[in-house]
## 1
Amino acid sequence: MTAALILAGQLSAQGKQDRYSRVAPNSISFSEIRGYENWAVVAPSYRTDKSEVRIILGNETILKAYREGVPGNGKPFPDGSILVKVGWAERKHPSFPAALEPDALQRVEFMIKDAKKFKKTQGWGYARFVYDVKTDSFAPYGKDAAFDQECSMCHTLVKDRDYVFTSYGRR
């Protein structure tokens, strides 16, 4: 809950651009995750190769599936499942240098399950929006609609988990 409040505070402080009007090259709109700032935390993560602090949020559909044991029970996530990943540059906590905390927002990316719509990418649609601190705005990632193949190829590493890296930690 605390992480969600911190996330909401950081995201509500963002600027004037209507991020929900942004559309990825594969036609997935930022508006498909409207209200994500208030979604439950699935898990935190940290990318050592990008020095990036991340939090993964989920909609009710994917949270229900996780609670039912997906993907560990061998079942796929249902259509309508959405995961949102918010990534920040890292910085050492000023009062406790052994801890890392979020610094500048870098990206918001998400994946949406729709087996019929996203057949070419194993049932998942991907979108990434890169945040520019200087202009206080988001830009869609990718030169054309094929950028989602980049995401899909990476996610084949977890084919046995229905292409989802994120685990749902015990609560």
## 2
Amino acid sequence: MSATLEAREPVARYLATPPLLQHFDRVAQAPGGVARLRELILTLAVQGKLVPQDPADEPASQLLERISAEKAQLVREWKIRKEKPLAAIAEEEKPFSLPAGWEWARFGELILSSDAGWSPSCESTPREGNAWGVLKVSAVSWGEFRPEENKALPATLLPKPECEVKSGDFLLSRANTDELVARSVVAWEPPSRLMMSDKLIRLRLSCHVDKALYCEINNSKPSREHYIANASGTSSSMKNVSRQVVLRLVVPVPPAAEQSRIVARVEELMALCDTLEETGRLAAVQHERLAGALFDALANSATAEEAAANWQRIAPHFDLLLDRTSTVDRLKQTILQLAVRGRLVPQNPADEPASALLQKIRNQKERLIATGQLKRDKPLPPISEEEKPFELPEGWEWVALRDLLPEFQNGASSRGDTGGSPITVLRLADIKNRRISLSRMLI
């Protein structure tokens, strides 16, 4: 991630591991397990529970004093503006308890300065080669810097070099959807000639804090709640956060030495998550192939007896085959396919054949026609061999759907309402999962 990582302490020097992370492999095997592990790792990291505290570390209170002195010196040198004092942090603003040696601070106390990009009228396509481009907000929305998310700057416009993204820049989106506004990334070694748009803010943090850690803190759940609560805009599809909202964010401050240990530990565990994710992806592909082969054999059974034999091969391995939603759905489809093809249950030679049942239906329709209750339809052409999708069991027959129904009828065109006439209007929206839903019917 950054050049300073090479100087950080080796993994062997970490002491205790949080109990849940001792069962890393087992948790990762659960559906969505790796994603939940990543979330857990970051939660433990920002709350000071990922690595043990060292009483010998300089406390965060002294770190904050050094940052304050750094900012005062930069103000005296006219390198940054003097900011208005930020409000004291109330107890109800603190989302969790801090370990010994940590402190709460406003994010603005750690930020030396900030600047935004610009909004030229760009091409609709990404830049080509090393041409100038302007980053879209999606370049910083997904937990990693995505330089390919850009639009080409027209050749008729001059670039603004002061807006170019440099290595190590802390970038934050000031305008985005409800769930993505104010998300941040650190751009480690970005391609040259990419500029910030006006929807991006670059934060210059004190050299005494770790950018990688504060990127995760800024993206953590308590920070998300702060940004969502304080974002402006009436539409959830486009929210805005001001610079002041960012500066007011309440953040935990670990000792400087512990910050480095936390980031190194996070990177180690995230690399392990990457490995588990790739292993799980390969295992999922193999699982899908195995389940597919077994269910295909079951679905293609020529007789109910053959289907029963194939079922016996699958049944002992149900716990392995049906440990994920995709294979459960596949099994449901296989069962339905067997049912409609006459392979789910064995045929009984004593059953009345379907030809006799069809004759009864024809006799019933003739009686309805004779009494004037039904109009006679034009005869349908015979079913050709190529129209029959599969072979039928003994005693079954192919028939056109119309031959089973007395008549087809269109519904009413009334839009309906939530009150008024007691006559119910059945809409397409009321038919779900092969059932009629009565919850939101109109009358």
## 3
Amino acid sequence: MASQSESTLILSIRNRLKAISYSGSGQRPDGGQNYGFRPLKGKPEECALIAEVQDNIALKNALVSLNHSDSIFFTVACEKSCNQHSSGCGYWMKGYVEVAFSYKVMVQNAQCYFQLFYDFNLNWFWKQKQEAIVQCHFELEPTNFWRHQVVGFAMTVWIQTEVMPSEDAARNAWSWALNTFVDFMKMQTLPSGHKFTPMY
């Protein structure tokens, strides 16, 4: 079992503005595919059709949970890759899921995202059974949700494993970390005493 000091949780802010919605642009320089933004909120049956989840049940379940009608979030994008180490010995996996609050007031408030990271770090991650050593990088990015006339933030949560002895071990470690994040997000609720305008 991994010790608390071995995994790493990071929060950063990216200094650029991007727009959502966006169309696909085909193959990227890194070999991945950009399929464009696809709204999945409240559409669990469409989550299974996303190309990136076809061979990863944890990522598919993440999209279903984060886009559930009861969730206060929606997903923007996702990706993953399992890679053989350059030495030829072992495998490591890296991927992300990008999320945003589904309500205008919250998506505009960076402090809401800071609080998520703080609570995940202090009150959740380290209290779970540590089944793997991973790095979780929460990357906040200014975002123009132009269809809703809102400028706010989206958050990409990158997860990377250490080098593992087999491809299955790397995939299992990555899935554990993603499931740990999604379980935390499923517990989040709207603050009481306020009226919120949904975007999706």
